[in-house]
From TrEMBL:
One of its GO terms (molecular function) is polygalacturonase activity. GO terms for biological process: carbohydrate metabolic process. Coiled coil: none annotated. This is Probable polygalacturonase. It comes from Dioscorea cayennensis subsp. rotundata (White Guinea yam). It comes from the Eukaryota. The gene is LOC120266554. The lineage of its organism: Eukaryota, Viridiplantae, Streptophyta, Embryophyta, Tracheophyta.
């Protein structure tokens, strides 16, 4: 019998495929698009999208070989962008290429639509390299568009693709490349499918997240390849909860966290399922940064292979394969509860240990580690000896490296878990467990081992 996440995925795919299979087919070149990569094709593309929507929906085709430079284009209900293999949509690098409001800075933007999508085998490219002021192997210095006052700081850059307040979204068989900021952003969406999507971001560019699922529900992500500098799959709860999210059969490499809850966490996360995912040489593997009072419950991570390593202390993370934390961001925030979290059939090779940290008034509860193989091996030259609580909380704290650090937990099951250590040349490297008895209770160990090799 098929599992519930699989049935959900099949149902969503059928519904969305039906809504996107009918209608007209038009080419942007029919409406005057040149596709030379130098002249803006925005008007021609938008006219093609609007004409397709007016005729009841269908597909807007970008012929192979073209490079279609554009300012923001707006998707309509029932319209699918079919970017043929060998075709590119290029995002403009000028601030005037984007709407006045920074919240609408996307190369492709869909607002309050139903049944829209992107496919075709081609590429949407944000030309992120044009936003680099100074290349830096630690962290590139980027162009910021904060002169309008609508946004502040160094994150005022355009995202690549955004679906906002939309339903029955489907993005499949497409490459999303070189975003200047976040890559694929789902905001307050319902019934979204992201499958067979390839995401590439510059490895030294900050904030170029792969897929951000913000306040969105009933989401399926499958067979995706994400290779980027910041968080790869990132649920966020800013204005509402995030529930019924499934991600499967994918490959991730990131200089930040591969799967990260938060750090925007004002509302609850529940019923998430992550299965058969390879996380390769990432700065952090599975993470929860709950800082704003939202709660997390009923999450399963299963059948995963993880490798983590230090890249630079400037980036959040210390090469933890699993990092579960809840603490108040600042004096105006509060910690949230994290409960019913399952880790099943997971193997990892990492330069640091598992980090489990609740708070005095927001304990971690009912955590289950079942069939877990943890291998600890140092191969980079960065110094250890720090716990990383960022953002906020305690910041960076000196410590010995433990195989599993635990604090403020009530209910932890460890069943068939092994720890293996390579080398002994680092201070405190071989400590299997570190916890304060006064803050941890209801721990169960069954078939647990720790060996130095």
């Amino acid at each position: 019998m098929a599992s519930l996440p699989l049935l959900l995925f099949l149902l969503l795919t059928i519904i969305i495929a039906v809504t996107q299979s009918n209608g007209s087919h038009v080419s942007v070149t029919t409406f005057g698009a040149i596709g030379d990569g130098h002249h803006y094709d925005t008007t021609s593309i938008q006219h093609a999208i609007d004409a397709c929507a007016s005729s009841g929906g269908g597909r807007v085709r970008f012929p192979a070989g073209g490079k279609y430079l554009t300012a923001t284009i707006f998707l309509r209900s029932g319209v699918v962008l079919e970017i043929e293999k060998g075709a590119q949509i290029l995002g403009g690098p000028r601030q005037e290429d984007y709407p006045k409001e920074s919240a609408r800075w996307y190369v492709v933007l869909a607002e309050k639509v139903k049944g829209a999508g992107i496919t075709g085998g081609g590429e949407i490219n944000g030309q992120g390299w044009k936003f680099i002021v100074r290349p830096d192997p630690r962290k590139n210095i980027m162009v910021s568009w904060n002169s309008t006052g609508d946004c502040l700081g160094d994150e005022c850059r355009p995202r690549l693709v955004g679906f906002i307040d939309s339903t029955d979204v489907r993005v499949w068989n497409v490459t999303l490349n070189q975003p200047a900021y976040w890559c694929l952003h789902l905001v307050r969406c319902s019934n979204s499918v992201v499958e067979d999507v390839r995401i590439y971001g510059d490895f030294n560019t900050p904030n170029n997240d792969g897929i951000d699922i913000e306040d969105s529900n009933h989401t399926m992500i499958t067979r995706c390849h994400i290779d980027t500098g910041d968080d790869a799959i990132c649920p966020k709860s800013s204005t509402g909860p995030v529930y019924n999210l499934t991600a499967t059969d994918s490959w991730i490499r990131t200089k930040s966290c591969a799967i990260k809850f938060g750090s925007a966490s004002f509302f609850d996360f529940s019923k998430h399922y992550y299965n058969n995912i390879t996380i390769f040489e990432s700065h952090r593997g599975l993470g929860m940064q709950i800082r704003d009072g939202g709660n997390v419950s009923d999450v399963t991570f299963s059948n995963m292979k993880i490798s983590t390593r230090y890249y630079d202390p400037l980036w959040w993370g210390r090469a933890e394969p699993i990092y579960i934390t809840s603490c108040a961001r600042d004096s105006s925030s509060k910690a949230g509860f994290i409960s019913n979290i399952n880790f099943v059939n997971i193997s990892s090779v990492s330069e640091n240990g598992v980090f489990l940290s609740g708070s005095k008034h927001a304990l971690l509860s009912n955590l289950n580690f079942i069939n877990i193989e943890l291998v600890y091996k140092r191969w980079s030259n960065y110094s250890g000896g720090l716990y990383d609580y960022r953002p906020g909380c305690q910041g960076l704290v000196k410590h010995n490296t433990a195989g599993m650090m635990m604090e403020y937990i009530s209910g932890l099951q460890i069943k068939n878990v092994s720890m293996r250590w390579f080398g002994s040349g680092f201070k405190g490297w071989n400590d299997p467990l570190e916890f304060k008895a006064s803050s941890v209770d209801k721990i169960s160990f069954h078939d647990w081992s720790s060996d130095v090799l």
